[in-house]
Structure formats: structure tokens, C-alpha cells
């Protein structure tokens, strides 16, 4: 008990400046095992500490109290409160422990995800404060929780930050996969397609299941978004992926092929045939959306061939049952901004128009400005990468410049230069 | 401070004169104070008045033409000044005058120039001495001190007027306003001096860069001046500075004259051109980015490629 008292006083005393914190950190590390054993006193200790000031000590004690298989009920609540008000600077010193704690919290809260979304979001933001463009292990967990809770917007706010540095490939795969699913939930199919593309073309030594699932969704999202399907993977996918991913996706390939032919009835037959497979993969909803998008794709193709068309003709060409349905579809597409057309209800004619965007409004100026700023930022990142690569010893050794420098490097290796005589 | 001239003459000054005076001054100053300041026993040329380099005064004559009420000063030449008698060498002046008359038949001696910060007493003597050539000569004074905060040219033109001081009519110097007038050749040379343009025209890239730099500095200056005005007006509004109605009237008239064309067609065209330029810079940025990316990828492949490049899988990828 005396050790506990001493520990409490040291936590309370040393939570001030950075030097003190390092000393405290060392002490806590030594005291970890003893903390784990004394599970009864842990909660009572926690009452004496303030999470926002004594974050480091609080973190250690919380982690020790949750390391066992059985938790106290209050622990979950305490963790949520702790995450919300802890001090990011102190957490930085023990970030792995923080990550472990949050993962345990997530597992515990998984059945009731809404409770955990807020704390997980703030946890990610606090970790992100350290290095804003780095992917942490918490990002995919937070996204998974948001998916479970169907809080797509909350998850989307994490996705909007650009990630430049990645530590663990698995984290990256999971992040992109869950991110893609969140975007599908929000119907942002373009961003979903990009994220899933990242997973499919990520460098990997062995095929993992994340890539499989991502590839299936990627095919479907591409169909919905741009109506394109190709039998082969993108060129920059790793060779491992290129060999193996196709084997298990035959139902999806069938869907893609029939989509390309453009006949709705055959596509629906294929969907029904493979529906059990789609159910197993939880992709049935996505497949149905893909079928619905085929109508849109066909109508889009009509705009390129005809200037005006009657609603019955549209219904016939797109294999819709009647003109009313055609009108609904066209109206929906006009509202979404996918086509530009005028429907004349008196004689049932649709006139397809050109894109009226003249690019001469002041709103367009704002759009262009923001886009240019983003490109400038991207260019700066690339130049920084270029510079760091130029200083990389691997590069210098192999490049022409490096080889020339070696030629004039007399001091080291006489064996390589037999002509050199002292 | 000399009061303003009331003769009603309009003075037009050509930049050539300013360049000549400054060139004269710089030359003499460098000769007197050479960069290798080892020797102190140099022959001091006779046209310098005082020994210390900052007080060096140079003298010369300005020539030009007078048409009606407009006096246009085109050119200038140097004169020899005798420090002992504090006067200009007359014979030299007349010789030079004859030579210049042959080359520029329409030009007459209009006055003289000197350098310094303000007019001094014995300037009046020189002025009077020149009165027999031109009954009302002008005195052009260049202030060679470099003052970075000063925005105007450090050139003042003085005329002489008879004022009654202490009961005796005396000639004193009075300030005359002037404008700068340029001929095409002068504009090119002034540009050359001001912007140090490459003499062979340079490549297109350097020309574009020089042009854009010029525009950029002009816009920056405009921006800072507007900012000063704005802060002044805000301070007047808050009450920190007493209201100056004439200044506010001037600012109001400036603002009212600003949108030169206010029609919708103008707005349309303006926005369209603006968007076009933005699209062009966007395209340029993307191209720039793509070339950067290309370099990064090349460097990456060189650094990390495996040595066995003849694998069966085409092996264009650095991993596996």
C-alpha cells in the first residue's frame, strides 16, 4: 500500500514540466507490474487523480486495470471520460499504451457503438495532433466503430485529412477499406473508388483478405460510379495481387461482363443466380445499386446519340416498363446533375442539352482557387519527397552521381583502383 | 524653404538631364574617393568645390528650348568651376555652348545645375553671372543623398525672383514645379537602368520572369499605398486623427472614378478572362506536379529496384 501511496504522490507531483514527465514515465514503467496485481485499489487511486492534469499516470493505471479479462463496469465510462479530457502532450510520451487502451475500449464498446464514436474520434484527433499526416493504429478502429454505428459523417471527417506517412501496411489497408465503405454509405462513390483502389494496388507480399474484399467492392463501386469494368487489375497492382485476386471473384466478373453488354434482364438473372455469394460477402445491397445504375448508364449513352427523344422511346431502349418510369429516371438524373435535359410534358419529349457551365462565374473562381492551392500543397510535398530521396544513401549509391563520386574517392579502397600508385 | 514661383511658366524636364547630373556626380565622387583608398595624394580636379566626398558639388549647364510659356529642358553638359574665384569658367562655357549650338541648333542655354541638399548663398552669384546669357535662368538642383523612404525625385528647379527684403529688392530662389517628359529613346534607357534588363533580350523565360517581377512589385506598391490610405481613413473614422475634409474629398473622388466600366458585359468578360487565366495556371501547376512526381518515381526506382530485373513478371515494379 505504501508503494501505491508513493506512486500517487509522485504522479501528482511530477505531472508538471517535460523533464518531470520523463522521470514520471520511467517510474511508472517500473511500477507497471505491481499496478496490475493490485486491481482493487486501482479505481480508488483513479479517484484521487485528475485526468486532464495527470494524464500519464491515469493512462498507466487505466491500462493496468483493463489488462485482465474482466473489467469493472465503471471502467468503460472512465475511459471515455479520460479520452475526452486528457492532455495530448502527456499522451505522446506513451502513445503505444494509449493505442492499446483505445483498442480495448473499442472492443468493449462494439456491441453498443454509438457510445464509443465520440471518444474514439477525440482520441484520433489527439494522436493526430502530434503529426498531422501520419496514419495511426487508431484510424481504422475509429472508422470501424463509425461503420458499426452507422455514423458515416463522423467517419468522413477523419477521411478528409490527407495521409502522407504510414507505419503499418495493415493499418493502411484497413483504413482504406473501412474508409471506402464509409464513402459508399455516404454515396460518395468517387472517393470510395479511390480508397478501394489504394487497397487493391497497395504493395503486398502475400494476398490478404482485406484486398479480396476490397477488390470485390471496388469492381461494384466502379460500375456504379463510372460504368467501367475491365477484366484485369490496374497495372500498378503488385504481381501477387495480379495472380491471385481474380480467382475468387468470378461472380463479380460475371456481373461486370453483363453490365458491359447493357442488357438489364440478363444482368438481373445473373444477380439472382449468384445472390447467395453476394449475401455472404454482404455486398447484395451494392449489387442492387449497380443494377439500378445500369439504367442511368444507358440513358447517358442515349444523350450522346440523340438530341431529342420521346419518353416511350427512352423506355423501350433502356428496357424500362413504361414512359412514366423513364420520366422518373430522367428527372432524377437531371436533379443529380448527371445529365442536362429539358422534359416537355405536353408531348412527352426530352431534349438533351449541353453542359451549361461556362466557367465564368465568381463561384468558379473560388473553386479554381482552392483547387490550385491544393495542387501547390501537393507539389510542395512532392518536392520534399524528392529532396529526401536525393539524400537517401541507397539512391546515392546506385545513381550515376553516386558512382562518379566513388571514382574520386581515393582515400578508402585501394583494391578497386589498381592504377593508383602511391 | 523657398516660396513657390509665380512666373506661370511650365517646366518640363527630360530624364536625360537627371541621368547626366547623377552620372557627373558619381564619376567625380568616385574619382575623389576611389575604392582602393590607399592613396590620399591625388590631383583634385578643378571642378570640385569641397574636399570631403559627401560635400562634393558638381556644376554644369542645362540647355533646352522655350516655346511660349513652356520651358523644356532637354540636355545638359558639364562646366568647369574655379574654386578660387567661386565662379564658372566663362571661356569654357562659351566654347561648349558653340559646339552644342552646332549639333542642336534649336537649343539654348536655359540655366545651370548643381548638386546638394539645398540652395546656398553663392549659388546666387553664379546665377547672376549666367543672367547675361539668359535673362531668367533656371537652377536645377539634385540631391544626391539616397533616401529610401522618399518617393519623389530629389530634383528641384529654382527660378529667381526679385522680392523686397529689408527694403532692398533682392533676387531670391523660388521653387518651380515641373513635370517629367520622355522621348521613346529615353524611356528605353531609363527602363534599362532601372530594371537591369539583359541586353540581348534574354530567353523567353527570363523576359517573362522580369516582366512578372515588375508587375509584382508594382502591385505590391499599390497594395501598400492603398493600405496606408485605408488605415488613415479608419483612424479618422475612429476619431484618433482629426478629420481632414479635403483629404476625404480626394479619396472619395478617387473611389468614384475607379470602376471604369460597370456594365454587365464588362463583368462577364472580366470574369471569363479571370477564369481562363486561373485555368491556365491550374494546368501549369498540374504539369509541374506531374514532372515532380516523375522525378520522385525515377529516383525511387533507382534506389529500391532489385538487381534481378529479368523476372518473368515483366518486373517493372520495384516490389517483388
Describe the structure.
The complex is a heterodimer of chains A (422) and B (320). Chain A is built from 23 helices and five strands. By secondary structure, chain A is mainly α. Among the domains of chain A are: 1-130; 306-371, Orthogonal Bundle (Arc Repressor Mutant, subunit A), CATH 1.10.10. Chain A has a three-stranded antiparallel beta sheet with strand order 3-5-4. In chain A, helix 5 (73-85) packs across helix 7 (95-109) and helix 11 (169-185) packs antiparallel against helix 12. Chain A is elongated. Chain B has 320 residues and is α/β, with parallel strands linked by helices. Chain B is 44% helix and 19% strand. In chain B, strand 8 and strand 9 form a beta hairpin. Chain B: InterPro entries: EIF3F/CSN6-like_C (IPR024969), JAMM/MPN+_dom (IPR000555), MPN (IPR037518), MPN_CSN6 (IPR033859). Chain B: This is COP9 signalosome complex subunit 6. Chain B: It comes from Eruca vesicaria subsp. sativa. Chain B: It is found in: Cytoplasm; Nucleus. Chain B: Pfam families: JAB (PF01398), MitMem_reg (PF13012). Chain A: Belongs to the CSN3 family.
Q: SSE string of chain A, helix = H, strand = E?
A: HHHHHHHHEHHEHHHHHHHHEHHEEHHH
- What's the average pLDDT of chain A? 78
Question: Averaged pLDDT of chain B, please?
Answer: 79
| DSSP strand tally of chain B | 10
The whole-angstrom Rg of chain A is 29 Å
Number of strands of chain A: 5
- Shape assignment of chain A: elongated
Question: What's the short version?
Answer:
The complex is a heterodimer of chains A (422) and B (320). With 422 residues, chain A is mainly alpha-helical.
Layout of strands and helices, then pairs:
The complex is a heterodimer of chains A (422) and B (320).
Chain A: H1 2-13, H2 18-37, H3 39-48, H4 55-65, H5 73-85, H6 88-93, H7 95-109, H8 113-128, E1 134-135, H9 138-149, H10 152-159, E2 165-166, H11 169-185, H12 189-200, H13 209-226, H14 239-244, H15 250-261, H16 264-273, H17 275-280, H18 284-305, E3 308-310, H19 311-318, H20 323-336, E4 341-344, E5 349-352, H21 362-390, H22 393-398, H23 400-407
Parallel strand pairs in A: 1-2
Antiparallel strand pairs in A: 3-5, 4-5
Chain B: E1 10-13, H1 15-32, E2 59-67, E3 70-78, E4 81-82, E5 87-88, H2 90-103, E6 108-115, H3 121-130, E7 138-142, E8 155-165, E9 168-176, E10 178-180, H4 184-195, H5 204-238, H6 245-256, H7 264-304
Parallel strand pairs in B: 1-3, 1-10, 6-7
Antiparallel strand pairs in B: 2-3, 2-6, 4-5, 7-8, 8-9
Amino acid at each position: 500500500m505504501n508503494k501505491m501511496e508513493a506512486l500517487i504522490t509522485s504522479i501528482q507531483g511530477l505531472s508538471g514540466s517535460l523533464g518531470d514527465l520523463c522521470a514520471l514515465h520511467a517510474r511508472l514503467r517500473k511500477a507497471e507490474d505491481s499496478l496490475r496485481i493490485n486491481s482493487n485499489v486501482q479505481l480508488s487511486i483513479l479517484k484521487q487523480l485528475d485526468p486532464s492534469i495527470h494524464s500519464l499516470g491515469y493512462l498507466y493505471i487505466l491500462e493496468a486495470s483493463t489488462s485482465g479479462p474482466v473489467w469493472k463496469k465503471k471502467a468503460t465510462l472512465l475511459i471515455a471520460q479520460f479520452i475526452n479530457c486528457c492532455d495530448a502532450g502527456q499522451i505522446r510520451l506513451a502513445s503505444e499504451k494509449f493505442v492499446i487502451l483505445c483498442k480495448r475500449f473499442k472492443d468493449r464498446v462494439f456491441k453498443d457503438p454509438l457510445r464509443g464514436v465520440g471518444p474514439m474520434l477525440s482520441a484520433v484527433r489527439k494522436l493526430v495532433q502530434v503529426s498531422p499526416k501520419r496514419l495511426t493504429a487508431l484510424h481504422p478502429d475509429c472508422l470501424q466503430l463509425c461503420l458499426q454505428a452507422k455514423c458515416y459523417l463522423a467517419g468522413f471527417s477523419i477521411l478528409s485529412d490527407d495521409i502522407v506517412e504510414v507505419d503499418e501496411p495493415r493499418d493502411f489497408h484497413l483504413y482504406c477499406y473501412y474508409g471506402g465503405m464509409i464513402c459508399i454509405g455516404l454515396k460518395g462513390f468517387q472517393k470510395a473508388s479511390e480508397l478501394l483502389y489504394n487497397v487493391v494496388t497497395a504493395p503486398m507480399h502475400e494476398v490478404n483478405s482485406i484486398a479480396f474484399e476490397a477488390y470485390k467492392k471496388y469492381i461494384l463501386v466502379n460500375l456504379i460510379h463510372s460504368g467501367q469494368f475491365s477484366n484485369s487489375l490496374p497495372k500498378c497492382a503488385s504481381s501477387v495481387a495480379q495472380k491471385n485476386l481474380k480467382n475468387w471473384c468470378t461472380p463479380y466478373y460475371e456481373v461486370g461482363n453483363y453490365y458491359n453488354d447493357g442488357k438489364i434482364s440478363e444482368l438481373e438473372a445473373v444477380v439472382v443466380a449468384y445472390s447467395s455469394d453476394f449475401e455472404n460477402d454482404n455486398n447484395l445491397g451494392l449489387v442492387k445499386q449497380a443494377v439500378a445504375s445500369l439504367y442511368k448508364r444507358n440513358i447517358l449513352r442515349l444523350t450522346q446519340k440523340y438530341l431529342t427523344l420521346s419518353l416511350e422511346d427512352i423506355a423501350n431502349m433502356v428496357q424500362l416498363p413504361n414512359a412514366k418510369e423513364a420520366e422518373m429516371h430522367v428527372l432524377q438524373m437531371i436533379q443529380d446533375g448527371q445529365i442536362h435535359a429539358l422534359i416537355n410534358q405536353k408531348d412527352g419529349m426530352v431534349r438533351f442539352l449541353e453542359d451549361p457551365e461556362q466557367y465564368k462565374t465568381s463561384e468558379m473562381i473560388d473553386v479554381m482557387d482552392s483547387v490550385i492551392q491544393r495542387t501547390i500543397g501537393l507539389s510542395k510535398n512532392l518536392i520534399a519527397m524528392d529532396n529526401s530521396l536525393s539524400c537517401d544513401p541507397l539512391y546515392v549509391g546506385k545513381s550515376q552521381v553516386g558512382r562518379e563520386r566513388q571514382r574520386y574517392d581515393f582515400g578508402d579502397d585501394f583494391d578497386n583502383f589498381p592504377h593508383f600508385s602511391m | 524653404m523657398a516660396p513657390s514661383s509665380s512666373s506661370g511658366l511650365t517646366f518640363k524636364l527630360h530624364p536625360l538631364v537627371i541621368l547626366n547630373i547623377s552620372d557627373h556626380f558619381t564619376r567625380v565622387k568616385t574619382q575623389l574617393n576611389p575604392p582602393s583608398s590607399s592613396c590620399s595624394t591625388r590631383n583634385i580636379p578643378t571642378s570640385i568645390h569641397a574636399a570631403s566626398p559627401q560635400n562634393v558639388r558638381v556644376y554644369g549647364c542645362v540647355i533646352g528650348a522655350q516655346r511660349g510659356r513652356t520651358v523644356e529642358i532637354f540636355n545638359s553638359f558639364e562646366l568647369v568651376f574655379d574654386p578660387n574665384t567661386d565662379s564658372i569658367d566663362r571661356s569654357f562655357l562659351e566654347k561648349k555652348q558653340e559646339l552644342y549650338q552646332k549639333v542642336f541648333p534649336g537649343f539654348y542655354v536655359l540655366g545651370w545645375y548643381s548638386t546638394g541638399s539645398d540652395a546656398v548663398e553663392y549659388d546666387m552669384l553664379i546665377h547672376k553671372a549666367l543672367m547675361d546669357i539668359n535673362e531668367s535662368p533656371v537652377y536645377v538642383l539634385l540631391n544626391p543623398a539616397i533616401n529610401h523612404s522618399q518617393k519623389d525625385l530629389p530634383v528641384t528647379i529654382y527660378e529667381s525672383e526679385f522680392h523686397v527684403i529689408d527694403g532692398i529688392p533682392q533676387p531670391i530662389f523660388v521653387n518651380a514645379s515641373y513635370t517629367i517628359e520622355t522621348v521613346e529613346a529615353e524611356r528605353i534607357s531609363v527602363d534599362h537602368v532601372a530594371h537591369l534588363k539583359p541586353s540581348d533580350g534574354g530567353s523567353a523565360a527570363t523576359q517573362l520572369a522580369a516582366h512578372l517581377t515588375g508587375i509584382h512589385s508594382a502591385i505590391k506598391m499599390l497594395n501598400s499605398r492603398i493600405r496606408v490610405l485605408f488605415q488613415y481613413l479608419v483612424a479618422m473614422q475612429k476619431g484618433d486623427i482629426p478629420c481632414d475634409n479635403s483629404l476625404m474629398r480626394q479619396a472619395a473622388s478617387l473611389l468614384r472614378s475607379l470602376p471604369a466600366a460597370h456594365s454587365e458585359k464588362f463583368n462577364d468578360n472580366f470574369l471569363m478572362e479571370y477564369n481562363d487565366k486561373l485555368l491556365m495556371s491550374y494546368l501549369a501547376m498540374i504539369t509541374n506536379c506531374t514532372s515532380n512526381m516523375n522525378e520522385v518515381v525515377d529516383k525511387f526506382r533507382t534506389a529500391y529496384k532489385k538487381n534481378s530485373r529479368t523476372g518473368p513478371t515483366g518486373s517493372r515494379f520495384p516490389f517483388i
